[in-house]
Design goal:
single chain; alpha/beta; Rossmann fold; 2 domains; 5-stranded mixed sheet; 11 helices; 9 strands; globular
């Protein structure tokens, strides 16, 4: 499977609109050009000054035809959602003026543009730090219903002739240093939902990782993994396209022969495609 082409084909079918806040970076403008010319998605570029974006594009030989370049303007946003954001930020100690000033920044404006349902996605992080992107998304968009812990996943592509044959998801290796059981459950649930979007029709096999497999070691550190496994299994109970098992070591999760030996009868061992790390 060429995972890149697979994802691009999924995107073409959606025919979505994406906003790219980092209009001051030529890589982002080049990506916008590629997305537009290849019919992958329509693109919105927010800017403090549209002429500056055009000059940056011209100097890099980037064609902005078909790309919607807009001025950062609060009038383009949903008034109710802006008001809710200001109220939430003032409760955290910001003044109304400072809260509104945040929405003049490309990253926060783009998140609110998404929150206002003017587009389908916001992609950032080429220039902004991960922490900045997460903070803006959490402050403006928030978390999905039923989820309390924001998390990330890495889509890992195994090399040719590797024992792992298909892409797998590692979670959460970028946001939460030491989540507790409920947090691990939320991380697993969020990643399964993303797995279903990228690999529709495929079964999600979720391995709750630890340094022990099925009680091969005993330590209080395992307690949160065991509890998280139970909570995640209960969440997906009755869903035949999701299997959850733990605690499992990495090798027992992805190597079929090891999985059969260490966790016989497991629906996940040896064929995990989602690996939930404990910390």
């Amino acid at each position: 499977m060429d995972i890149r082409e697979h994802i691009l084909e999924l995107a073409k079918k959606v025919k979505g609109k994406v906003i790219l806040p980092e209009s001051f970076d030529t890589r982002v403008l080049k990506a916008a050009e590629m997305l537009t010319k290849n019919g992958i998605a329509s693109v919105v570029i927010p800017a403090d000054n549209i002429d500056d974006v055009k000059k940056t594009a011209d100097s890099a030989g980037i064609d902005l035809n078909g790309i919607e370049v807009i001025n950062i303007d609060q009038a383009l946003l949903d008034n109710k959602k802006v008001s809710d954001f200001v109220i939430a930020r003032t409760k955290k100690g910001l003044s109304e003026h400072d809260a509104l000033a945040l929405l003049k920044k490309p990253l926060y404006f783009s998140m609110m543009y998404l929150k206002s349902e003017k587009c389908d996605a916001c992609v950032a992080g080429a220039v902004y730090d991960t922490a900045d992107v997460l903070r803006a998304s959490l402050h403006v968009i928030g978390v999905a219903e039923g989820i309390n812990v924001i998390s990330s996943y890495f889509l890992m592509i195994p090399p040719a002739n590797h024992i792992i044959k298909n892409p797998v998801m590692f979670t959460d290796c970028g946001v939460n240093p030491d989540p507790q059981a409920l947090g691990l459950k939320d991380i697993a649930v969020s990643t399964v939902e993303n797995f279903k979007k990228i690999f529709p029709g495929k079964t999600a096999n979720v391995a709750m990782l630890s340094f022990s497999t099925k009680g091969s070691a005993s330590n209080k550190v395992l307690d949160k993994v065991l509890e998280a496994t139970k909570l995640t299994q209960e969440y997906f109970k009755g869903q035949c396209d999701v299997n959850v098992d733990g605690e499992l070591q990495f090798d027992a999760s992805v190597v079929p022969t090891v999985g059969e030996r260490k966790a016989p009868g497991s629906a996940v061992a040896g064929k995990a495609n989602i690996l939930v790390f404990p910390d």
